[in-house]
């Protein structure tokens, strides 16, 4: 056990979050003793490589242990949600884009429905605007590094032309800028407030963001005798419950 603890400490592995159960073992007595002694651990690199993994406990059946099941393809992102990126404020043309996005149909006079329409239109507009302005950061970094590598290899056998040398310098500057932007995005999504602006541990930010998403994931929802497991049905259940609790009150308040 001492060697195992030393291995965990040296390799900085983490305990994967277990969904659905707090304990995995019982002594099967009338007033049972419950503990969690079945676990799965993973490195930060593995966690980043498998962002859609989820660990769940299964039925204990005839045993006193509940087997644990690790899936690598949980449907975390059935539909991409809108996220306002803080760095958009510093991009050229943001003010003009905001004025263009914050519009809705003039026939909507109800203040609540009007605000809802404004937010929806702005979210849809900025989703497309952000993709057009920035695009896929990881893909751009990978493409730039591939070109830099080819120029590095060419430099070993000949002198680069002025155009090739200029391109290599520009690509290196671009990678620095995009890497900084990637850390900014990861920092915003990780919500680690105690980290200073100078900290640049991108793996840590991604690991924390993945951990939050895994912990907040809802695998199933029980509605009466029904157990909703598909994302579409879970969305319907939550929407129906929201309308039942909040929607009716909102409608009455606006009359």
Overall number of strands: 9
Mean pLDDT: 80
Counted by DSSP, the helix tally is 8
The amount of beta strand, in percent, is: 5-15%
How far the N terminus sits from the C terminus, by CA atoms, comes to 67 Å
Describe the structure.
The chain has 255 residues and is mainly α. The chain has 3 domains: 70 residues, no CATH class; 136 residues, no CATH class; 29 residues. Helix content is 53%, strand content 9%. The strands form 4 sheets. The chain has a 3-stranded mixed β-sheet with strand order 2-6-7, with no helix packed on it. It has a two-stranded antiparallel ribbon with strand order 1-5. β3 and β4 form a beta hairpin. α3 runs antiparallel to α4 and α6 crosses α7.
In short:
The chain has 255 residues and is mainly α. It has helices at 2-11, 44-49, 94-101, 111-133, 137-157, 162-190, 202-216, 231-254; strands at 14-15, 18-19, 25-26, 34-35, 41-42, 54-57, 68-71, 221-223, 226-228.
Spell out the blueprint of helices and strands.
Elements: H1 2-11, E1 14-15, E2 18-19, E3 25-26, E4 34-35, E5 41-42, H2 44-49, E6 54-57, E7 68-71, H3 94-101, H4 111-133, H5 137-157, H6 162-190, H7 202-216, E8 221-223, E9 226-228, H8 231-254
Parallel strand pairs: 2-6
Antiparallel strand pairs: 1-5, 3-4, 6-7, 8-9
Properties at a glance:
3 domains, disordered C terminus, 3-stranded mixed β-sheet, two-stranded antiparallel ribbon, 9% strand, 255 residues, mainly alpha, 9 strands
